[in-house]
Amino acid sequence: MEGALVGFGMGPQLLLLAGGAVAVAAFARRRGWPAPLLLVAAGLLVSPMVPAVPLDPELVLYVFLPPLLYSAALDSSYLRLRDVRKSVGLLSVGLVLFTTVVVGLLVHLLLPTLPLALAFALGAIVAPPDAVAAVAVGRRLGLPRRPLTILVGESLFNDATALTLYRVAIGAATGGAISLWHGLGEFLLAAVGGAAIGLALAFGCAWVLERTRDSLVDNTVMLLVPFAAYLGAESVHASGVISVVIVGLYLGNRMHLRGFGTRLVSDAVWRVTVFFLETVVFALIGLQLVPVIEGIAGYRPWQVAGYAAAVLGVTIAVRFVWMFAYSYLIQMIRGGEARPTGQQTAILSWAGMRGVVSLAAAFAVPETVPERDRAMLLFLTFTTVIGTLLIQGTTFPALIRRLRVSSEQERYEDRLAEAAAQQAALEAGLAELDRLIAEQGHEPDEIQKQVIDQLREKSWRRSLTAWERLGGGTGPGGAETPSTLYRRLRRRMLQAEREVFVRMRDERRLDDEVLREVMAQLDFEEAILDR
């Protein structure tokens, strides 16, 4: 790994890459644009003007991929994924196999001198979509929950299928013939072994977290978990991807058992980690332009352009064919899920942007493969990744708007369910309060009555807030509801209180340590108001 980091370019080069990528991502977020697409475009523009920044496959697969997968799994809903498990299986396994075969046969037809095993390796490389950009756009534009869940589930598991097929194909290309049964056995070992290691690590990690009860220790352990899961599975030739996803889904489903401090810190830690890693990864994709083009200097430009266009077109078309067949297959499966609507099928078909895992796999093709063949695989992978990101990524928002797919009804139902749950929780909380008062055996004194009244008022306010959100925070005639007015005024009060504390610190009447403590209290209160 040390060699990977050195090859990546430690020092000023790494710092400039990270700083520039964060600046571009910040600009994109400020403008409301998809940051991944702008980062790729920026990388393409500056690639000819900066020193080469090679994409080391070990760095991507062992450093970047595990935490990104783990965070996505941690934030996913196990219950929703279980509801769409047949759809996820058809896409993360069936579609990857279908794409591998079709693209492999096409490449072998276009380049007869390229061994069939390497052609299938390219098919496996470009088969798995990366749903980061699609999910980000879909959430921002209000895509319904079911297609979003399918996209997330597909992206969690399709890398495992693709990387296993890739290993089998590369093994056949470099070490001789491999039978179908051998390939199937390797696939089963990867899937079952990865799941077993993931479950074992999940149970062990849950046991540790139940005994630490320290938010900093808990989150430090969870930072190490994805790397342990990935490395542990890969060391026995199982699927590191499946291992990481299993751990993330298990711990995410049990996050309610952790303390509030662990949950608050975890949310902040993973938001920052994912933002930074995704920012650097998408910038790296664009920066591979010059190294990739230099590798195909021996080919005619029009010739390689034709190959690239054919592979890109077929990669996109294959997903459309499979998706519309899938909408019928899903009904044929016994106990099948509801058939997706035509609009949802079209959106899922167009959400096939490829990402950095494909590029990392292409860069990882062994040096024993002839240099000319290796360069062609890398070029076709790069053009497919860039083509899907820039063509599908830039038009994906327009497609969602054009089809008028919205989650407005889901959001209303969510608010209604939340309000009902808050009401039930309020009644349970007040009943517990009454029970505790009765246990005292005597009437509360004046001070205790004031505390009890405050507790009742706070409970009622929280329940009222949930019901008021159904009206968007406004009452008749557009007037502010009581809770909206409360939050607005309390935020202004908190700002005034902060200014007093800071002024007293500047006047040396308050120590910095005390300032940090009181600021944390005010920040937590404002975070509650923001929720």
UniProtKB/TrEMBL annotation:
Keywords: Antiport, Cell membrane, Ion transport, Membrane, Sodium, Sodium transport, Transmembrane, Transmembrane helix, Transport. Belongs to the monovalent cation:proton antiporter 1 (CPA1) transporter (TC 2.A.36) family. It is found in: Cell membrane. It is a multi-pass membrane protein. This is Na+/H+ antiporter. Residues 24-400 form the Cation/H+ exchanger transmembrane domain. Na(+)/H(+) antiporter that extrudes sodium in exchange for external protons. Coiled coil: none annotated. The chain crosses the membrane at residues 6-28, 35-53, 59-81, 88-111, 117-137, 187-209, 229-251, 272-293, 305-326, 347-365, 377-400. InterPro entries: Cation/H_exchanger_CPA1, Cation/H_exchanger_CPA1_bac, Cation/H_exchanger_TM. It holds the Pfam family Na_H_Exchanger.
